[in-house]
């Protein structure tokens, strides 16, 4: 018998809820924060910290990507290009004009957001798949531009930049700063999604006509959503640039967008957290496969390709659906033992 | 000899059930009508018989063989031709190509030629406009083309869905005349119509479907004199 | 019979008929499609005068093959409502098969230099490549798309696109895994050149172009006169109607997909001398196919053919006047422009509306 009596949220529950974290999410977050400082190898090795950072960057990118694809149903197939524009803007401003890095990072975010507005406006008239094509081609054009304007970007040679913190700062610092950004991003996106704005996004994504008759102006909301998504892309791209210290045009390639896309769709579109959670095992497995199976390059990607196909056909909800399935099994047990209060919000 | 039988058929779209235990029987050579108000489920019934929709339960028996749930193209091969309300013509193909597609299931070219000849005698206008694109024809001509196309495979039974819809009375008459002729030549026809007066005049027997349930079944002249039918459909 | 003259009425009729023909022709020339083709031909002539005939040649060679691939993309979009992101990978498969068939053949020819295989061999190889692509297409359609059709029709177009992304990853990395990422190429199928009107062209290129022409013609005849061809057209125009006349839509979709993949593989195999085989060789053909289809209008199979030449020309132009790297920027911007200004394409899309109202 499920205990249907709703308890007032107290203490930890209330805190978690205001942060939009489920208990499982909180546990995951704590694990992510604590893991790198635990005294177990390989967890505390710098090499592992680097992987964590890369995973975090892809994870935040996934959240931003899912914000568009999972809600207004626009797959931004040029997503990596917006990240790259953030990287390059920040890098060029810092390199050429000596502007301090945090400022250039903000500039990178703004430029990416502006491009997002433009792309959003341009794609307004287009039905689903054609908006995807447009974003894809804009991403390609940006990629080509970065390569060709080598007097500005040093093209394929790569553009070295100063790092965010002075050289010698341990990766852990970057990691924790990134986690703060991740948490803020999550909070922002989740709050928007739970607000009337988020409902409007979903309405537009599912049935544009019906949304219009409800008095929503789809154009405006699409642009807002897309801009936020691209802004976050720019921010995280800039962060990446100033962590790695050098950026190459491949950061904008379609290939990179595909990597994030795979994360989002296997993780569960619309969940926002699916791609983020998946980024960590993804990066770790990629590294492991790369180092152990040196003679079999690309095996990891091959596996991801197959998993993506299988998920899209047989289990479209992805990891998030699986989590919900497990959670639904476990919750009654926890409720009975009053270890858990009934959710106010029905998970998507 | 019973050609087509429907037993306790329940069908619908997704969670919406439209037909409730419908029973029907049509003998070879008959010209039967199915009338009823909008949304009664007449089109759904035809679509289920022809295989476009899978029934939830019940049986459809054609020439003694159970065909419920079989795909539309296979049902067509058994000798059932369905002419939908929307006609589903190939609008970018010529009339002749549409007719040739109608005989898709016929293997021998000679037989296709023969069918074409026969159809052209019944519908001379189509022969005149052989090379015209189907999409550019007028409403009545399109209906004729749809019927002709359905006849190309020499079906044993025609399921016709509201052929007079949207047509001027004179043109509708031509369509009905064509159907009567086809029936005289031996094709069994189940005609779904909203134009009840004319339908009851040309058909032998009729069913009345309301809200997914069969409410009446009788000879056409009986139906014409039936009080309920007169009030609801004949405006008397 | 002495001086037969027409009556004034007949004269008048003929006059009217002639006028309508002229009007029709003029109207077509003023349509976006007509203007594009006119500009294209004018530019082609100007550039040939300016830079010599090799631009023209290169346009023809690659244009023919891109056209074939674009036809494939248009076909599966019109018939199956699928946008195949892995289309370029079938190009790659064609070139891969061709490469691996060339190795033993070249060895054989070393010992038997006078064998007729010198002439026939490459044709057989290209056809084998195409057939392999088609068979693989059948496999993919049965294993992937048929399953998707049975299980999940929600958001079909987008989901299929995503599935084909997975397929693309799978195929690219399979190639890398099994055959390494090295460039596997050949110098030529047939050595030697021909001289046409004072221009020297390699035999390989000439044959590739002729193959493209022959394939296009064969495809046209197939679609117009053969029973399966007509069935394909029927399904693309009205799927329910096709079912109602007894067409097995399932089989037709399989056929269409196989045809599309076969065309892409044919392009890949026949251009092996120009594009060596490596895992990501299909990426550029993929972009170009989509550029063409968007330029011309989705589902417009006939239009894909001139479209192929136009895009090829544009690429060659960009490469000649602006340099190697800009091929990714300028054509893309052109296509973005088309998408924004006239999303239904310059020659008119032949599928259901693409605009949101």
Explain how this protein is built.
The complex is a heterotrimer of chains A (348), B (236) and C (357). Chain A is mainly alpha-helical. Chain A folds into 2 domains: 1-44, no CATH class; 45-253, no CATH class. Helices cover 71% and strands 1% of the residues of chain A. Chain A has a two-stranded antiparallel ribbon with strand order 1-2. Chain A is globular. Chain B is of the alpha/beta class and 236 residues long. Chain B contains 10 helices and 10 strands. In chain B, strands 6-7-8-3-9-10 form a 6-stranded mixed β-sheet, with helices on both faces. In chain B, a hairpin with a 2-residue loop joins strand 9 (205-210) and strand 10. The N and C termini of chain B lie far apart (36 Å). Chain C is mainly α. Chain C has one domain (44-341): Orthogonal Bundle (ABC transporter involved in vitamin B12 uptake, BtuC), CATH 1.10.3470. Chain C has a two-stranded antiparallel ribbon with strand order 1-2. Chain C is globular. Residues 352-357 of chain C have low confidence and may be disordered.
Short description:
Chain A has 348 residues and is mainly α.
User: What's the arrangement of strands in the largest beta sheet of chain A?
Assistant: 1-2
Q: Numbering strands along the chain, what is their spatial order in the largest sheet of chain C?
A: 1-2
CATH fold descriptor of chain C: ABC transporter involved in vitamin B12 uptake, BtuC
Number of helices of chain A: 15
Structural Rg of chain C: 23 Å
- Biggest interface between chains: A-C, 45 and 48 residues
Structural class of chain C: mainly alpha
Number of helices of chain C: 13
The chain-level mean pLDDT of chain A equals 83
Largest sheet of chain C: 2 strands, antiparallel
The domain tally of chain A reads: 2
Sheet having the most strands of chain A: 2 strands, antiparallel
Which residues of chain A sit in consecutive blocks of at least 5 with pLDDT less than 50?
1-6, 344-348
**What oligomeric state is this?**
heterotrimer
Proportion of helical residues of chain C: over 70%
Tally of distinct domains of chain C: 1
Helix amount of chain A, in percent? Answer: over 70%
Strand-and-helix sequence of chain C, N→C? HHHHHHEEHHHHHHH
Q: Radius of gyration of chain A from the CA trace?
A: 21 Å
Give the strand content of chain A. Answer: under 5%
């Amino acid at each position: 018998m499920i205990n249907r009596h709703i308890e007032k949220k107290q203490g930890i529950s209330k805190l978690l809820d205001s942060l939009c974290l489920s208990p499982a999410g909180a546990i995951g977050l704590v694990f992510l924060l604590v893991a790198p400082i635990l005294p177990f190898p390989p967890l505390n090795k710098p090499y592992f910290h680097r992987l964590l950072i890369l995973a975090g960057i892809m994870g935040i990118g996934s959240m931003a990507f899912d914000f568009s694809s999972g809600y207004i149903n626009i797959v931004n197939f040029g997503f990596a290009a917006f990240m790259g524009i953030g990287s390059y803007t920040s890098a060029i401003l810092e390199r050429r004009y000596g502007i301090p890095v945090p400022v250039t990072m903000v500039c990178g975010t703004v430029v990416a957001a502006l491009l997002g507005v433009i792309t959003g406006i341009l794609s307004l008239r287009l039905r689903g798949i054609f908006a995807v094509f447009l974003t894809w081609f804009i991403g390609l054009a940006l990629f080509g531009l970065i390569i060709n304007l080598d007097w500005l970007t040093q093209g394929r040679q790569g553009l070295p930049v100063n790092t965010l913190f002075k050289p010698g700062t341990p990766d852990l610092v970057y990691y924790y700063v990134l986690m703060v950004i991740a948490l803020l991003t999550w909070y922002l996106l989740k709050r928007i999604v739970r607000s009337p704005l988020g409902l409007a996004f979903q309405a537009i994504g599912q049935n544009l006509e019906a949304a219009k008759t409800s008095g929503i102006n789809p154009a405006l909301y699409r642009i807002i959503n897309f801009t936020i998504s691209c802004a976050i892309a720019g921010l995280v791209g800039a962060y990446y640039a100033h962590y790695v210290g050098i950026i190459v045009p491949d950061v904008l390639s379609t290939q990179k967008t595909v990597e994030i896309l795979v994360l989002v769709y296997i993780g569960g579109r619309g969940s926002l957290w699916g791609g983020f959670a998946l980024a960590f095992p993804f990066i770790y497995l990629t590294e492991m496969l790369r180092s152990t199976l040196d003679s079999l390059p690309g095996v990891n990607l091959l596996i991801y390709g197959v998993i993506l196909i299988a998920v899209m056909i047989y289990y479209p909800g992805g990891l998030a659906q699986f989590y919900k399935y497990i959670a639904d099994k476990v919750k009654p047990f926890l409720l009975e033992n009053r270890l858990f209060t009934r959710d106010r919000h029905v998970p998507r | 000899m019973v050609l087509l039988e429907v037993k306790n058929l329940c069908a619908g779209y997704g969670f919406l059930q439209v037909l409730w235990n419908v029973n029907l029987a049509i003998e070879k050579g008959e010209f039967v009508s199915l009338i009823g108000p909008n949304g009664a489920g007449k089109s759904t019934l035809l679509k289920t018989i022809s295989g476009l929709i899978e029934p939830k339960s019940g049986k459809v028996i054609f020439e003694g063989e159970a065909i419920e749930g079989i795909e539309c193209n296979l049902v067509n091969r058994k000798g059932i031709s369905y002419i939908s309300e929307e006609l589903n013509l190939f609008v970018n193909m010529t009339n002749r190509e549409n007719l040739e597609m109608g005989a898709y299931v016929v293997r021998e070219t000679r037989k296709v030629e023969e069918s074409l000849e026969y159809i052209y005698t019944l519908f001379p206008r189509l022969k005149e406009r052989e090379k015209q694109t189907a999409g550019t024809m007028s409403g009545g001509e399109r209906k004729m083309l749809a019927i002709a196309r359905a006849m190309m495979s020499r079906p044993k039974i025609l399921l016709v869905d509201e052929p007079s819809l949207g047509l001027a009375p004179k043109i509708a008459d031509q369509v009905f005349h064509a159907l009567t002729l086809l029936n005289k030549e031996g094709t069994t026809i189940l005609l779904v119509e909203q134009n009840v007066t004319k339908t009851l005049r040309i058909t032998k027997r009729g069913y009345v479907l309301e809200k997914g349930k069969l409410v009446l079944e009788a000879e056409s002249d009986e139906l014409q004199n039936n009080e309920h039918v007169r009030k609801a459909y004949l405006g008397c | 019979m002495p001086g037969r003259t027409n009556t004034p009425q007949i004269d008048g009729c003929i006059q009217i008929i002639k006028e309508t023909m002229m009007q029709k022709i003029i109207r077509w020339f003023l349509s976006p499609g007509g203007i594009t083709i006119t500009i294209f031909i004018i530019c082609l002539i100007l550039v040939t005068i300016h830079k010599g005939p090799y631009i023209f040649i290169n346009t023809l060679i690659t244009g023919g093959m891109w056209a074939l691939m674009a036809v494939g993309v248009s076909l599966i979009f019109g018939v199956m409502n699928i946008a195949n992101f892995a289309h370029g990978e079938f190009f790659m498969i064609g070139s891969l098969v061709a490469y691996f068939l060339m190795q033993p053949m070249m060895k054989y020819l070393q010992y038997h230099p006078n064998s007729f295989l010198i002439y026939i061999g490459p044709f057989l190889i290209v056809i084998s490549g195409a057939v392999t692509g088609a068979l693989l297409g059948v496999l993919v359609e049965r294993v992937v798309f048929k399953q998707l059709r049975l299980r999940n029709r929600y958001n079909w177009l987008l989901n299929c696109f995503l599935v084909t992304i997975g397929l693309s990853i799978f195929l690219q990395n399979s190639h890398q895994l099994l055959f390494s990422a090295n460039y596997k190429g050949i110098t030529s199928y047939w050595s030697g050149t021909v001289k046409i009107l004072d221009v020297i062209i390699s035999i390989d290129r000439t044959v590739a172009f002729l193959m493209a022409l022959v394939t296009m013609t064969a495809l046209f005849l197939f679609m117009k006169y053969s029973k399966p061809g007509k069935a394909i057209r029927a399904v693309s125009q009205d799927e329910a109607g096709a079912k109602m006349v007894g067409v097995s839509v399932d089989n037709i979709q399989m056929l269409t997909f196989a045809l599309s993949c076969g065309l892409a593989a044919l392009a890949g195999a026949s251009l092996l001398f120009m594009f060596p085989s490596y895992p990501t060789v299909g990426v550029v053909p993929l972009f170009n196919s989509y550029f063409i289809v968007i330029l011309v209008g989705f589902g417009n199979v006939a239009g894909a053919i001139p479209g192929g030449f136009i895009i090829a020309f544009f690429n060659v132009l960009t490469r000649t006047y602006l340099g190697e790297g800009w091929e990714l920027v300028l054509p893309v911007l052109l296509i973005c422009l088309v998408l924004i200004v006239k999303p239904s394409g310059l020659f008119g899309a032949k599928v259901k509306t693409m605009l949101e109202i």
